[in-house]
Amino acid sequence: MAEEEEEGGDTSEFTWSGKLVDYLPIGIGKASFPNGDTYEGPYEDGKRNGKGKYTYKNGAIYDGQYVQNHKTGYGVMTYPDKGIYEGAWFKDQKHGEGKFTYPNKDIYKGEWKDNLRHGVGTYFFAISMSQFMGDWHRGNFISGQWQFRNGDIYEGGFAKNRPEGAGKFMFAANKTTLYGTFADTKWLSGRWKHTPVAVLATGNAARKQPSMTFDPAMVRANQPSFVIPMRFC
């Protein structure tokens, strides 16, 4: 993930093009900082407040809401590596619901906390066209579905983004489910069972329509607690 950009605009030393009241910038204007960063937007009580655009010297751009000099509210950050985050911020951290499109075209859409994927969310892998769908904790996928392009599904727990513990493979081609356990990345096979038609319908839809414009709804009720894709290295 792209590293979070630090703003050099908390210093009192900058060039201001705009209105001053009691030697403090107020209203809409442009601030130019000694480190080469610039900010265009409103100031209030000498601080960035409201919707503004902050351009970093390295090429990163934040366009969104500020509260007391901090990115807080809705905003869009475009990073130097062309990664893009669109969503909620709190005190300069990705926090709340948001969507991150990575330079390699992977997409995560869901909940964030303290700049990490945390809560319910879906991660789409552009190369394999598979996805993780379920629960995240401090940046790691911990439970849910791993949905594959061919319609197969793995559902269970995860550790460090790899299947771990009890789970099941649901195979679309022969409509069967294989129960078992992952231990240290090794699959210990268990019993077979017929896969419910309703579950297969979900997998088949993913197989027939592997859309590159993946855009999952950010509604908890619409995001079941199971998982989707990843390589075991």
Q: Describe it for me?
A:
The chain folds into 2 domains: 7-80, no CATH class; 93-233, no CATH class. It is mainly β. Strand 5 (50-55) and strand 6 (61-67) form a beta hairpin. Mean pLDDT is 84; it is low at 204-233. 5% of the residues lie in helices and 56% in strands. The protein is elongated and about 75 Å long. The chain has 1 helix and 17 strands. InterPro entries: MORN (IPR003409). Keywords: Repeat.
Give keywords.
single chain; 233 residues; mainly beta; 5% helix; 56% strand; elongated; disordered C terminus; repeat; MORN
Quick overview:
The chain is mainly beta and 233 residues long. 5% of the residues lie in helices and 56% in strands. It folds into two domains: 7-80, no CATH class; 93-233, no CATH class.
Q: Secondary structure elements and their pairing?
A:
Layout: E1 15-21, E2 24-32, E3 38-44, E4 47-48, E5 50-55, E6 61-67, E7 70-78, E8 84-90, E9 93-101, E10 107-113, E11 116-125, E12 130-137, E13 140-147, E14 153-159, E15 162-171, E16 176-183, E17 186-194, H1 197-208
Antiparallel strand pairs: 1-2, 2-3, 3-4, 3-5, 5-6, 6-7, 7-8, 8-9, 9-10, 10-11, 11-12, 12-13, 13-14, 14-15, 15-16, 16-17
Keywords: Repeat
Pfam family, one: MORN
InterPro entries: MORN
